[in-house]
Amino acid sequence: MALPDLSGRVAVITGASRGLGAGLAETFRAHGMRLALTARGRPVLADDPGVFAASFDVADEAAMQRFARDVEERFGRVDLWVNNAGVLEPIVPVRRLRAEDLRRHLDVNLFGVLYGSRAFLPFVDRQGEGVLINVSSGAAWHGYAGWAAYCASKAGVDRLTETLQLEEAESGLRAHAVAPGVVDTAMQELIRSQDPSVFPEVERFKRLKEEGDFNTPSYVAESFLRIAFDPEARPAEVVVRLPKEGD
């Protein structure tokens, strides 16, 4: 089934300067959506008249709240909010994981999602509806040696999203934590550069590169739009894993 006309719909995407976030923005905009984009660097499409772009760290709750107020002033509503910003590092065994590095990781990957999700709730209250997609990972489902921080943060994103759905369903929120599969981004380059003694799964990710066995950003973006706006594709579950592209 084709997507409905999305012209004039408004989406927020965090981490929209490169990788998956940039791909989401480009596909959403191609569907005629108006966008509010943020990243620590310069978001893509920043010069597009249908785009509001802001640069800040999602770990800064006050900056997130200012951003939300600016989006309300610019567009008046938000139909879809995507918390995509995230980091992978530190990649170290637990015995070498420094508390300050874990805190910084969680500031972005978990608290950034919390701040973005809470900034979206007033829009949902006013509108009576709204879709939240928090980008998760297969790493939320089981541990990987060397990825203690990433696995913990993404598992936290899943549980946070489930809790939000339980608490906010009556306000009109529909929340999903979506694992997009393996997408060939700068994060994947970092993964492939790891020493097997630290990250034993590295050879599997190198094989994915050799075989080109990735989900494309456009496929992930179209899947997100179907989750948000196609009633026939609406998942019954809060936590969702996208199938491999082409399956």
How is this structure best summarized?
This protein is α/β, with parallel strands linked by helices. The chain contains seven helices and seven strands; from the N terminus they run βαββαβαβαβαααβ.
Structure description:
This protein is of the alpha/beta class and 247 residues long. The chain has a single domain, classed as 3-Layer(aba) Sandwich (Rossmann fold), CATH 3.40.50.720. The chain is 43% helix and 15% strand. It contains seven helices and seven strands. A seven-stranded parallel sheet has the order 3-2-1-4-5-6-7, sandwiched between helices.
List strands and helices in order, with pairings.
Blueprint: E1 10-14, H1 19-30, E2 34-39, E3 51-55, H2 61-75, E4 80-83, H3 99-127, E5 130-135, H4 148-168, E6 173-179, H5 186-192, H6 202-211, H7 217-229, E7 239-241
Parallel strand pairs: 1-2, 1-4, 2-3, 4-5, 5-6, 6-7
Task: Write down the Rg.
Answer: 17 Å
The largest pleated sheet is described as: 7 strands, parallel
Helix and strand element order: EHEEHEHEHEHHHE
Percent strand: 5-15%
The CATH homologous superfamily is termed NAD(P)-binding Rossmann-like Domain
- Large-scale geometry: globular
Strand ordering within the main sheet: 3-2-1-4-5-6-7
CATH architecture: 3-Layer(aba) Sandwich
